[in-house]
Each structure stands twice: as C-alpha cells, then as structure tokens.
Amino acid sequence: MMDLLEALVIAKENFPKGPEAVAARIGVEVCSKPLTGCAGWCIQNNNIARISINSTMPSVRQRFTLAHELAHLLLGSKSEVQSDADFFGSNEGEEKAADRVAAEMLLPKKEVQRIATAPPVDAATIRKLANKANVSPVMVACRVAELAQPLGLINAAVVNFNGDKIAWIWSKTLTVPHEKARTLLRHAREATGGTFQEPSRSGETIVASVIDSPIQTCLFIQVLPVSIGNAKSRDQILVELGKWLFEGSASFRGQVNGCLSNFKATAKNEDINTALRLFNEKYIGRWTGANGDRVRDPRGQKFLRLRLEEWTRSVE
Fold first, then answer.
1. How many CB atoms lie within 10 A of CB 231?
2. pLDDT single digits (tens) 137-187
3. CATH of region 118-231, choose from 3.30.450, 3.90.1580, 3.40.30, 1.10.10
4. What is the pTM (predicted TM-score) of this model?
5. Based on the number of CB atoms within 10 Å of its own CB, is 36 exposed (0-12), middle (13-18) or buried (19 or more)?
6. Is-same-fold flag (4-106; 118-231)?
7. How far apart are the first and last CA of the chain?
8. What are the angstrom distances between the C-alpha of 217 and each of 158, 186, 193, 234?
9. Please, are residues 87 and 99 in contact by the beta-carbon 8 Å criterion?
C-alpha cells in the first residue's frame, strides 16, 4: 500500500482529480451504484480494496466519499459504512482524521492559498474554490478553517445548520456557542452581501458569512485583526456596485447576468484580465445610453471583474 505522503503528492500533482489519481495508482476498484441509506463503504480482502459509492448522491458528495474511503486505506484505519448524513460531522477520531486527509487530497494547501490570497475569506472566494476543485462549498469552508493561520486568519470555524438546529460545528481551536452561532447567522442573513462583522471581546473582529446550498445552510466564521476584519468583503462590494450599476432595473440586471452566465465556460480557461477584455469585446457593445455608460464606468468594470473572478483561472 502506498504511504500517505506519497498519496498526497500524487493528489497535489493531479489537482483537481487527486483522489481519482490516487485510486488508480494503488489499484483500488471503484464502483458507483445506487445504495440505500449510506454514501459508501470500503471492503479490503488481502491486498485488494474495493470502494462502493452511492451514485444517487451529488457528484461533489461522491468525490468526498471516494477521498474519505481512500484516506482510511492510507491511514490503515477501519472504514465504517459511511452515512449519507453531512460529512465533517463525525466526532470519532478515526473519522475526523479521514475527513482531514480527504480534504487535503481534494483541495491541496497550495490551491487554497492561490485563490484565498487575502482575508477576509468570503462566500464568493469559497464558491470559487469549490468550482475549481469540484467539491462542496461546505468542504471548502472546513478546509479554509483548517488552514486559518497560514491564510492570515487568527481562527475560524464552520457551523452547519439543519433547519434552525445546528447539525455540527467544525474547527481546530475555535469554540462557538450554539446561541452565538444562531445569532451570527441571523445577522449575516440581514447584512449586505450575506456577511456580518462585529468586534469581539478580545479586541478582534468576527466575520460571519452565509454559504447556502440547495440542501443545507452553512456559516463560515473567522476571527481577524480589526484592520482586516472591518474591510468590506467581495460580496458586500458586489452588492453595492450592483445597486449602482443596475439602478433597480431588473431587465438590465438580467441581461448582464445572462451574458456572464453564457461567458462562464470561456472565463474558466482565462486569467481575469484576459477574461474581462474578451467579455467586453463580445458583449459590451450591446448596451447604449445610460446603461452603456454605467457598464463602461470603472465601477461597472469592477463589478464585471469581481463576477468573472469566481470562474477565471489563477495566474501561476
């Protein structure tokens, strides 16, 4: 069996298909099929391993299951039948260790640092990382929380909600009382761009960002120095720029959003400067009058840049 360090190197070299590359290298048989009541499992007889994954789960969940089961093999720990409940929610030591290794295979530290270049890390940055790595935003949030200090955060935590109830809280060192988490979620939902900032008792700034998905609500909490934590997040800036750019015109907003959506596939292959130039060349001529003036204004261009940055590739 391959050792853990070698597997992580292979995963890093083959990002964003790290777990798939590791499975192929060590000869694990991976079977995807409908399963009832679980996300997957791993069976090992002699030196032959077989991983079964529930094909009815979302693709990002299937990839995490693959990485998690590979982690058990690499760690030499016992693999339990993996529940279809939220990942990162286990309190078991071996399961937590497998979650951490799975996250590192799916999202190497270097890739996180390449995109999360400056705190605060907001929901837009987490979504961009999720798109790049083909993983869940919740998994990205947990990985960012794990790498808090290397990313310039004092501390961080992820709170996953099941309706109004807290399903689990993940952090290496930050303790978040449940009532405080619910209060931060309420304030973040009411705040511009889904991000809420408040001073902490220790003289730092707490920044809470909502990360919604079709199946769950997640709150990413980070503790930052006041000088950084009080800065506006990307999402907050986008909301303010959008109000100025569209001036309440749902039609104009729909046109711009439609063009951005159509351009998404092109943006993924370009750096941000090239993507913005190509977008302008293709679309900006269709807007005239006041709308055309605003979209060509530096503020309109900044809005487009921030939107396109969610998809563009990072410059090496």
1. 16
2. 999 999 999 999 999 999 999 999 988 899 999 999 999 999 999 999 999
3. 3.30.450
4. 0.83
5. exposed
6. no
7. 33
8. 11, 12, 15, 20
9. yes
